[in-house]
Fold this protein.
Amino acid sequence: MKETKVAAIYTSDPTTACRRPLFVASVSAGFPSPADDYIEGQLDLNKHLIRHPAATYFVRVRGDSMIEAGIHSGDILIVDRSLEPKDKNVVIANVDGELTVKRISIQRKKLTLLPENKHYPPQPIDKNTPFEVWGIVTHVIHSL
């Protein structure tokens, strides 16, 4: 078992566009339906996934402490620095000089970083712990 850490950090490039066809017809997860040859328009993934381009960066994950949240080793996370951390957000945090990804718990003015893997313990953050939130995870990108 490996604690989930940030393996690499990448900046976003808001000047690029990644427009792909967006079909009006939804895809059935049950029985297949005939395909429609009707395209609604173009979908720009930068506009769809990044709300605040100047405050957004990407990180690659290493470890397995967040697998029950759907975050796996090798995934890329989209992180927004402009958002304020709220209870139950998944955050990138600098804890004692090391970057990690965890769910934050804010209860009765107490902070705890919660893994999403039963094999890891919660990590309480007290006033003596060097700690800073580096952003809120808004999306996870991984291959199937």
User: Anything to note?
Assistant: The CA atoms of residues 11 and 57 lie 4 Å apart. The first strand starts at residue 5 and ends at 11. The chain has two domains: 5-13+52-141, 19-48.
